[in-house]
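User: Run a structure prediction on this.
Assistant: Running it now.
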Amino acid sequence: SKIGEDQLFYFSQRGISPEDAISMMISGFCKDVFNQLPMEFAVEADRLLSLKLEGSVG
């Protein structure tokens, strides 16, 4: 699903930029999936996601 205006509004009211909010929501969603992977794959997947999101959101 798409990230809603109300979700971004919620984060903005707490002083979080839209870019950081989107990154946090994507990371949170992916962590649920990564937790199902073997540890070595989960660590690498998390690292790759962080690299991909860095500077690309927004």
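The helical segments are 5-12, 18-34, 39-53.
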